[in-house]
Design brief:
mainly alpha
């Protein structure tokens, strides 16, 4: 469920998707010749690494800005790095998208979704820090990666890690959950899946979302809230 401030975050993300400021504060358009949105999402769901790299280039800088916006406590910002959190956001997105959970028709749909995932991750990381009673003031400030505002490419090690994560997720799904995920991953509509497996589209959609919530929580990547 998208929280009430998801649209606000999405608008910030939309701005950052199209405009990236350099060190002098001059607006610079991101690289041209990008794939149309629907085509890009289809390629991401099909597991194409070039598509994943393009999505990272388009959206990761904007995700980091939203993460930093929610890291209001300067002591917390010393121990939580926006780049690390944004990579976790993207890993969650790639797994769920590849296994067919999301229905994304427009860039704003994706932006609202990424903003929501980012907000949940920051909130849960902050709670974990507080629960562990860590002294933020004694932590060394992390690197200056947060100051890098422009897009970067998804590197091979990240792509390999995402592939490995996807394998682990599939292994932890039950047989019927895996069949459902594979059908969605290859592009079957919910109507087609209902015709094959029975039930209702809403029930099957919730079954897949809850299965992914469960597995990603087991793997320590996701805290839920993305259904």
């Amino acid at each position: 469920m998208i929280a009430s401030n998801g649209l606000t975050d999405a608008r910030r993300l939309y701005w950052q998707e199209h405009v990236c400021r350099d060190d002098q504060g001059i607006g610079a358009l991101l690289m041209p010749e990008e794939s149309p949105f629907v085509e890009l999402i289809q390629r991401v769901r099909a597991g194409e690494e070039d598509a994943a790299a393009e999505l990272v280039r388009r959206y990761e800088p904007a995700i980091r800005r939203v993460v930093r916006m929610h890291l209001r406590d300067p002591r917390l910002r010393r121990v939580l790095d926006s780049t690390d959190i944004s990579q976790s956001v993207l890993a969650t997105f790639f797994v769920r998208a590849n296994l067919g959970q999301f229905e994304l028709d427009t860039p704003e749909d994706l932006l609202k979704l990424l903003a929501t995932i980012a907000r949940h991750k920051v909130t849960n990381q902050a709670r974990r820090q507080q629960a562990d009673r860590r002294d933020y003031r004694r932590q060394e400030k992390l690197g200056e990666r947060d100051d890098l505002a422009c897009a970067r490419q998804s590197d091979p090690s990240e792509q390999a890690a995402n592939r490995e994560l996807l394998v682990k997720v599939r292994e932890r799904l039950s047989d019927d959950e895996r069949q459902l995920a594979e059908a969605r991953g290859r592009g079957d509509s919910w109507a087609e899946i209902v015709a094959t497996y029975g039930g209702t589209a809403e029930a099957l959609r919730k079954k897949l979302a809850r299965a992914l919530d469960r597995v990603l929580q087991q793997l320590g990547l996701d805290e839920g809230g993305n259904e």
